[in-house]
Amino acid sequence: MTQWTLGIIGGSGLYQVDGLEDGRWERIDSPWGEPSDAVYRGRLGAVELVFLPRHGRGHRLSPSSLDFRANIDVMKRAGCTDILSLSAVGSLKEAYAPGDFVMVDQFIDRTFAREKSFFGEGMVAHVSVAHPVCERLSRLAGDAAEAAGASVHRGGTYLVMEGPQFSTLAESRLYRSWDCDVIGMTNMPEAKLAREAELPYATVAMVTDYDCWHEEVEAVSVTNVLEILKRNSETAKRLILELAETLDRTPRTPSPQGIETCLDHALITAPEMRDPDMLARLDAVAGRVLGLHRD
Q: Is-contact 19 40, C-beta < 8 A?
C-alpha cells in the first residue's frame, strides 16, 4: 500500500490549481526533451498533487509542439502514482452538450507528427492499451465531477486528431459515423506513454462545443470555446478538490488492472542487445523492470 501522489495534467483553460498547502513550482529535467513547464507541487490533506500545465503557463505550446514523452517522464520522476488528464474537447453527439464532462474510456489515435513511445531501437517493448484508462481512477474522478456540479457521462470514445486546426465538416461527419463521442488534440500519445510508464491514467474530457457537424449551432470558433472553457475550468478546479478529499479517505492499493506491472512481459530485446544509452533514458519510466536505480 502506498500514499496517493496524484499527477494532474491540465489542458486548455486550466493553468494552475489553487488552494494547495506548501505549493511551489519545481523544475524537473527529462532526458526525453523539454517538458511543457515546471510542475506545481503541493498537498491537500495527506494527498500530494503534482500539476503540469500541458500547454505551459500562458498557453505557449500547440498540441503538435508538446513533448509528450518529456511530460510523462517528469510526472514519473516527480513520484506520481496516478495521472488525471483534464482536456477540452468538442462533442460529436447531440447528448454531450457544451459544459458536460465525459469520463473517456477509449481512444482512436489519428495523430501523425508525434513521438509515441519511450521504446524503440535498442530497447523494444510492446504494451497492451486495449483498455487505456484506469477504471478505478476514472470512476473516482467521475464521482468528484458530479460532486463539483458537472453533468457527467460515464464512458466515451475520444478521437484524437493532430490539429492545430479544427475539423473540416467532412472529417467531423466521418468521426460521427465511427460512433466517436468527443474529439480533441492532446490525449494521444499521452495515454499510451502513461501506460508504458506504468502509471494509471484517466481522462476528464470537458466539452466546449459541437465541433462543426451540428447544423443548428455555429461552427466552432476560438471565441465561443473560450467562454465555455472558463466555466469548465472553474468546475475542474472544484473537481480536483473533491477528488483529493476522496483519495485522502481511500487507501491506495495497486490498480486492479495491473497497470503498475504492465512492463513485466512487455520487453522484447534480449538483455545482451540492449542499448546502454537507451536504458539510461528509461531509468524513470522503466527502471523497475530493467533493474535500474535512480538517485
A: no
Amino acid letter for position 175: Y
User: Is 209 a catalytic site residue?
Assistant: yes
Average pLDDT over residues 58-78: 97
Output the pTM of the full model: 0.95
Looking at the DSSP assignment, which residues form a beta bridge with residue 47?
44
Residue tagged active-site, from 73, 209, 248, 275: 209
Active-site entry in 211, 264, 275, 283: 211
Nearest C-alpha neighbor of 246 from the set 258, 255, 238 = 238
For residues 228 and 173, what is the distance between their CA atoms, to the nearest angstrom? 23
Architecture category of domain 5-286 in CATH? 3-Layer(aba) Sandwich (3.40)
Residue 11: pLDDT band (50, 70, 90) is: confident
Question: What is the rounded CA–CA span in Å between residue 130 and residue 37?
Answer: 30
